[in-house]
Amino acid sequence: MTISKGDKLPDVKLVKPTSDGPEAVQSSDFFAGKKVALFAVPGAFTPTCSAKHLPGYVEKADELKAKGIDEIACTAVNDAFVMGAWNKADGGDAITMLADGSGDFAKAMGLTADMSGYGMGTRSNRYSMIVDDGVVTEINVEGPGEFKVSSAEHMLGQL
Predict the structure, then answer these.
(1) Active-site positions?
(2) What is the spatial distance between Cα 8 and Cα 52, in angstroms, rounded to a whole number?
């Protein structure tokens, strides 16, 4: 079943890349008590993700925060080392990377995509959501191969 507006996020382990190395965090702890703009991508360093998705959130970070967002987070079915390297290459301090290395978060949310045809296995769908104290208040799931409703620009219109 796919997570919906009004649902509480599943409580699973994610891994945050830090300067001291990977740091395990429970999703329930990470999202507690704050308003988070979360976006998910099929993979770090992939074309659309690197050219449009992540840069859009970096560019619009101040605008999102001015509209009440406490933290901007990105998740993908990649390990914390890859997510950390991607943030250094294309992201920045405004974005918190949350590695979902085994895809447990994507599976628990019902937002997986079979990308075996591209040699990538099971990944996350491309989506964005606004999460307020662990509860989904907006969710935007892209169709296959699309990049419209999960953009930072679209999310700004929802705030």
Answers:
(1) 49
(2) 28
